[in-house]
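Below sits the subject:

***
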Amino acid sequence: MYKYLSILVTTLALAHPITPIPLEADYNKEKAHLGKKLFFDTGLSNDNTISCASCHLLPGNGANSTAYSYGVNGSEGDINSPTVLNSVYNFVQFWDGRAKDLQDQVKGPVHNPLEMGSTMDDVVAYVKSKPLYRKAFKKSYKKGVTVQNVANAIAEFEKALITPNARFDQYLRGNENILTPKEKEGYLLFKELGCISCHNGRNIGGNMYQKIGIIIPYRHKGKGKLGRFEVTGNEEDKMVFKVPSLRNVAQTAPYLHDGTAATLEDAVNDMFEHQLGRIPTEASVAALVAFLKTLSGESPKILKEGL
């Protein structure tokens, strides 16, 4: 049996396999605000046109509103941008898990020719050329501006990008009346159908790999990335991706790694087909979508604070 099928039985016995996001983020404020400046700075790209925020819209959904993002020289990306919101709770970064943490992830877009098309050495040279950056790094880091410190500052900002107090989190904390009967029905279906087997934990996903197309093979309707296979080269890792977080999912359309599910309803139908091998009723889809809409939390506090 395909090894990723085993995770389908891991959490169904738990009453609430989802845990609320903490009300406050744990991060270094001084470093995070330095990272915030870098996150919005187009000078990190080789033509001064692209920042981290170009593909991860903030304030906003932390992702993008198109199937693929655009980088330097108008280059179109080849995979849907995942949201940076709550990314600190992911067990690895990127759809294929090639970055072990947020600090490691920072370097990927910088070097990607379809994104920033630069190098970390060039980024360091750019940051060192700015007196305000030099002063800020000297204050926050003993070694000043280095590759690791630039990546650390941006990662520290991203650690602050949590979205607490979603209505569903309030429900988990004991407010039974905050969800409508239809939303509660959707949560029950979410558990009964087995969605909870992959979408669980604090981030309602982001804590395991899974194959898309367990029952019915998934055939790309957009660009054809192959997931973990592109990292490991193992045949069994074809179409295996990090399970995406469902936090704020109502705001992060389009969906799936190839960005081909335009709406939540489309995404739910795709999951029924490829992961369950079933055709859902309209009522089931409506209830599940109603539940998914309760997962939207508050905007990160750090976004309300000035640069």
